[in-house]
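Below is one record:
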Amino acid sequence: MLANVDLLDNLAQLDTTFNQAIASGNTRLQDLCCKASILELCGWVEQCLDQIVIDSATRLALAPTTIERIKTEYVSKTYGFKYRENFEKMILSTIGFKGLKKVEASTLVAPTIDGFISSLRDLTKQRNFYAHTHYSLSQKYPDGYPSIDTPSVVKSKAITIRTFLLNYEKALKKYRC
């Protein structure tokens, strides 16, 4: 899985800029820091999910042509990070249904998978809004959102998501997937 050092550094920089914007009363810059934080986390999550699939294929010692096929037909054609719709399809190409069910039922994953899926659903909605709109005072937030997460809130979410993904990887390794 990808290290999160760069992500946390980027979120810390955005948080510093966000706090400076608060001090100067620059609400536009505050919102833009929040937007950038969300998009940064989403990009990191998407890359992590891709890397988990590739690492799993490598761990299973699949033939290089098979790994290349997984990269080409699954990873490179996946443009989202919803659990069931995106990640599950990719990981199934590597470990199959039996492996997936073992991993999801493991004590490392089962207690927190619903929260993880919910977090991804929420991030997907925000990412889809912020990645496809410019900043506008008339519609600053996605429908149903009264505000935007601050960089420090996004950092907290990043740590929670990373913890889940680390446990997911441990489960994959435990079941030799």
In short: The first helix runs from residue 5 to 24. The CA atoms of residues 74 and 89 lie 8 Å apart.
